[in-house]
Design a protein that fits this description.
- With 296 residues, the chain is an alpha/beta fold.
- It has a single domain, classed as NADP-dependent oxidoreductase domain (TIM Barrel, Alpha-Beta Barrel), CATH 3.20.20.
- Helix content is 40%, strand content 17%.
- It has 12 helices and 10 strands.
- The strands form 2 sheets. An 8-stranded parallel beta barrel has the order 3-4-5-6-7-8-9-10, surrounded by 6 helices.
- α6 links the parallel β7 and β8.
- α1 runs parallel beside α11 and α3 runs parallel beside α5.
- It is globular, with a radius of gyration of 18 Å.
- The protein starts with a strand and ends in a 9-residue tail after the last helix.
């Protein structure tokens, strides 16, 4: 699998990473998680991204990586109290969740801890950043990052304290391509693209109103890309995301091993071209709503 430099961190990361949100669901058993991660590592994936608020995702990942910890870059996020008493983003709670994440992940350190979509006000106040810097100084994490979107993500980049940005980048969510990715590239900050295939809404015939996928579904009805109505829209969508400035890795999550294999195969197909990408960008500029901000 192709590797890319992750900004100025010195890490070379696989262009496809595994996102741990979906495996945190109670109905996904450990055997399935072990199978998915085993398949991911077998094809060269070396990025695993999770968060303290993704159910028991951290525990499952920690168990699956016994004896394999040194073969991956392990990323997590913090900010939500998720079982601890107190308010989200409270400094002591943040410290406790970072320590709990290390325990759950069965490791002494992670490669990256990210603030999980906190507001610009929290960033300006400064306590949340200081907690992450303390964790970095203590060796609990090698790097720190911000996970979020739109103008708050832009402000996070302008602070010059974060080593990376995780943000939404896909065919249905292109705000970052103009707003944050060029600045990240200029500053040498690596980008993790979340939702790189836009929840695969182009493969669906309908979605439930108000569901997790509904916002992208609504955008899809307006964008109506002809380029995504052929035989392999997922490959085009994934390759579009990975073609954007500063994007080092695109994380995809799944509850089914076969879906992860499909995404790996999507990288191997030569189905995209600069002309197709230009058409997708042009259509976005033509019809995207002014309120189509990056999805949190």
């Amino acid at each position: 699998m192709e590797m890319r430099a992750f900004g100025s961190t010195g890490m070379n990361v696989s262009v496809l990473g595994f996102g741990g949100s979906e495996i945190g669901a109670a109905e996904v058993d450990f055997a399935t998680v072990d199978q998915i991660l085993g398949a991911a590592l077998d094809v060269g994936v070396n990025v695993i991204d999770t968060a303290e608020c993704y159910g028991n995702s951290e525990e499952k990942i920690g168990k699956a990586l016994v004896g394999k910890r040194d073969s991956v870059y392990l990323f997590t996020k913090c900010g939500h109290q998720s079982g601890f008493g107190g308010e989200d983003w409270e400094p002591d709670m943040l410290r406790r969740t970072i320590d709990r994440s290390l325990q759950r992940l069965n490791t002494d350190y992670v490669d990256l801890v990210q603030l999980h979509t906190c507001t610009q006000e929290h960033l300006e106040q400064g306590d949340v950043v200081r907690v992450l810097l303390e964790a970095k100084q203590a060796g609990k994490t090698r790097f720190i990052g911000y996970s979020g979107d739109s103008f708050t993500a832009r402000y996070a980049l302008e602070m010059n304290v974060f080593d990376c940005l995780q943000t939404s980048v896909n065919v249905m969510d292109q705000e970052a391509i103009d707003l944050t990715l060029p600045l990240a590239a200029e500053k040498g900050i690596g980008v993790i693209a979340k939702r790189p295939i836009a929840n695969a809404v182009m493969l669906r015939t309908t979605v439930a109103p108000g569901s997790y996928e509904s916002e992208y579904w609504d955008r899809w009805q307006v964008l109506d890309y002809p380029e995504l109505k052929g035989e392999d829209p997922v490959s085009i969508a994934l390759q579009f995301t990975l073609a954007q400035p500063a994007v080092a890795t695109a994380i995809v999550g799944t509850r089914r091993p076969e879906n992860f294999v499909r995404n790996v195969e999507s990288l191997r197909r030569t189905v995209s071209s600069p002309e197709i990408f230009a058409a997708l960008r042009a259509r976005w500029r033509e019809v995207a709503g002014a309120d189509w901000h990056g999805r949190q």
